[in-house]
Structures are given as C-alpha cells and as structure tokens.
Amino acid sequence: MDPTISLRIPLFKSLSKLDLFKLVNELPMYKFKQGEFLFREGEHGDSLFILMEGKLEIVLGADTKDEMILNTCTSGQCVGEMSLIMPEGTRTASARLKENSIVRVMTREKFNELLKQHPQIAYSMVEIMSERLDSSNETSFNDLVAKNHALQKAYDELKAAQAQIIEKDASNVNCKLLPIFNLVFCLMFCPTQKNLVLVQKFYLLVKWAVIL
User: Fold this and answer.
1) Same structural domain for residues 167 and 94?
2) With a cut of 70, which residues of the chain have pLDDT below it?
3) Chain-centre distance of CA 131, in angstroms?
4) CB neighbours of 198 closer than 8 A, spacing ≥ 6?
5) Are residues 151 and 115 in the same domain?
C-alpha cells in the first residue's frame, strides 16, 4: 500500500502531515474482496469509508435491471460521508468493490471529535459533497437522455405499426391489439429498464401481427 495515499485524501487536506498520519493510523483498517459491498442502498449508516487501495463504484439499484453506476472511486477517496452528518439517514446508493481493496473506517463519533479539534474540516466536507452531487446529477441526466431517445424510437415504431394494422384490415382480429397501445404508451412515460423491455417485446408482437 502506497504510504503517501493519506496525503491525497481530500477530506483531510487542511490537516498538517503530522496530524494527518496520526489520524489515519488510528482508524481501523479492513480488507474487502472484489464484488463485496461496503454498504447497500437503504441501509442505515454511521461511518465514512476511506479507500486506501483498490477501486470501488457507487451504484443505484445494485444487482437489478435498472442498475446505474454513478461514480468510480480510487485510492485516496472517501465514500459514505452523508452518514456522518445525517444521524437518522440511510444510504442513498451502494458501494461495491471493483477489485480487492483496503479501506479505513471513520465512525460518526470519531468524526465529531475531529471536528472539535479541526473545525476547518467542515469546509472540506462541503466541497466533497458538492462535487459528488454534481457528478451524480450529470450521470443521472445522461442516463435520462439515453432512455428518452430509446423511448422516442419505440414510440415512433409503435405508432407506425398501429397505423399498419388499421390500414390492413379494421375488422381483422389483430385490431384486438389496439386497446393495448394505450397501456404501452403509459409504460413509456416511466422509463425503467423493465418497462423498456416490455415495450420492445410488444413492438415485436405487433410486427408479427402485421405480417399475418
């Protein structure tokens, strides 16, 4: 493990080298394997994790079809800082290790003691939280834009298929599919991965019906 990692921890940048090394060495250290979670979305949290070695990713909807990676962290970065200032809060995302990693853990109690000795750390905490929020917002926006493009394409294809069915034979049994279009269009206004799959399957069904 690189001994200079401690110097790259943004949260402690206002501390002297002596205070920094003393603090970091007091924090308990743990090893995690690739694929393990430091914490999961929705869990109660009371600790900050400092990545000393390895990589991890911040994930929304971990292990689901709607999983979205918000950020990737490397050595010297912290995760879980919100739990230090929100005693009754829960984790808003999951932290999953991308490779075997080493982390140090700071509890809320330890953080409060540190603030009393070094109140300037509060400014570093605000900066970190602001940067994290900007990164999450950008990721969420890009994901939403991609889903909107996919939904628009599906919508156009379904409208075209609907027109073909009507044009082919208004009395045909295939017209029984028409009322379902309303339901499908409603699904398209809630762009989850599951709904996108349903829309795509329905589009294939409609294409098959048009061919008959």
Assistant:
1) no
2) 1, 3, 132-212
3) 15
4) 184, 187
5) no
Whether 38 and 74 map to the same domain: the answer is: yes
Examine the domain organization and report whether 70 and 15 are in the same domain. Answer: yes
Kindly report whether the global pTM for this prediction surpasses the value 0.70. Answer: no
Residue 111 maps to a domain: yes
Query: Which structural domain range is residue 197 located in?
Result: 147-211
How many structural domains comprise the chain? 2
